[in-house]
Amino acid sequence: xxxxxxxxxxxxxxxxxxxxxxxxxxxxxxxxxxxxxxxxxxxxxxxxxxxxxxxxxxxxxxxxxxxxxxxxxxxxxxxxxxxxxxxxxxxxxxxxxxxxxxxxxxxxxxxxxxxxxxxxxxxxxxxxxxxxxxxxxxxxxxxxxxxxxxxxxxxxxxxxxxxxxxxxxxxxxxxxxxxxxxxxxxxxxxxxxxxxxxxxxxxxxxxxxxxxxxxxxxxxxxxxxxxxxxxxxxxxxxxxxxxxxxxxxxxxxxxxxxxxxxxxxxxxxxxxxxxxxxxxxxxxxxxxxxxxxxxxxxxxxxxxxxxxxxxxxxxxxxxxxxxxxxxxxxxxxxxxxxxxxxxxxxxxxxxxxxxxxxxxxxxxxxxxxxxxxxxxxxxxxxxxxxxxxxxxxxxxxxxxxxxxxxxxxxxxxxxxxxxxxxxxxxxxxxxxxxxxxxxxxxxxxxxxxxxxxxxxxxxxxxxxxxxxxxxxxxxxxxx
Length: 479
What we know:
Blueprint: E1 7-10, H1 14-25, E2 30-33, H2 37-47, E3 53-56, H3 59-64, E4 71-74, H4 80-89, E5 98-101, H5 107-118, E6 123-130, H6 132-138, E7 141-144, H7 148-161, H8 180-208, H9 214-224, H10 232-242, H11 252-255, H12 265-276, H13 281-294, H14 296-299, H15 315-351, H16 357-363, H17 375-384, H18 395-418, H19 423-436, H20 442-453, E8 457-458, E9 465-468, E10 476-478
């Protein structure tokens, strides 16, 4: 082979195959390789007419097919499989070559791999790719980390194959050094968990309280999708709810077992938020809700647990309640995104990544699962105030939540009195109320800590750390 391919993809499962096709459709010659050579041959046979592919059956052939500097995209299972591919290909590469991991790797693994390969003169890019198999083929949102030099080589290609926002902006940018790209993709997925849970809670309220059928709820979501809730997830929710199961004639949603699975990125988002000391309660409750759904033995207790006597609303009341649910859903979504962007900011500070939050919102406007109309406004908010401490500090978002809060509270109160679980709605409202509270019970908590562990406390009236001697006289000493 003569090194004619501008980029190569190894790992030709659905995502890798579609990404290779995307590159080829955009005019690039693409080297393709898979451990099972039949997948390589099948791709070229089936899709060879879409562009220029160079099939390679061995690692040596694959590397030889790539022009310098070589750009090699790895699309295999995260973890040990990724390490194995890197160990296989790295010795065949030269200084200045680039390995791109397009899987859902843990960002700490990406930081380790980037450091190890940097010492060998090879660039390593951890690129979060969102949009599923359709996005991989037609334009995903791409979140690449790594060195600035690697993006100079790789960036123009990613910008060409990425989704485009309505204003034509490519949905990709250089996120930051080492693991920044995979960190941002992790938080993206955490926000996705919250978004999906909030939508699920809205559905459950419309079903159990308003008494709407799945097809009618689908119509409600279609209406919502024409307004400020316009998003990919709202759009597909309407499609799922309107689908009728061919085998039974029942609504599709009624024949699906109510156990939601997860692959781990949502859990990582919560775990890392705990490490960073960042409150992401809405995201956490979404992760826990999936966990609860899967614990069937625990849910067997539902046969013995008492609850309120539920009653459905009349037609006019139901319509008014649906409007209130829209308010609660929108306000809760703003809070969930607020928490996610706070975690990205904290990670950026912790690891010295210098992430541009406005650019993150901009590249999520197309291609990715959480693409939504209001990301334009998030982009504008951060462009106007790059150091914005919170989305809730933005005047327009604060005003919208202020307008929604009465309905938001009514919806949650109704859910409580009717016995409908809404953990994400409730958690996001509690977060909002915590931020606006003049005083929190943390003062009592710190007093308790000082009592049993001499952990000290700070006073409101003077500087310094203090400890109360919790004896008879309860005298105070400065630490």
